[in-house]
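Friendly challenge for the regulars: who can give me the structure tokens for this chain first? No prize, just bragging rights.
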Amino acid sequence: MAKLLINISIWLNERLGLNQPVTNNEKKENSESVSYVDVSEVDARNVAGPGDAGRMMLRGVVMCVVRCCS
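First reply, four minutes later:
Bragging rights claimed.
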């Protein structure tokens, strides 16, 4: 199962153009280097962690109840 998820992740990264090495005149990176996403301070402040996860779970339960009852 893990191998399947890894292969799907690799495929998605290639399709979305992620993990492309950034070449710089001073520094050359090989294709094995890991890419990352810079998150601005404003975006980082908007993440509430467990609170967001709890709201998402609550919304999911409510949606399931609404679908089952209608």
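The chain has a mean pLDDT of 76. The chain has three helices and no strands. Your move, everyone else.
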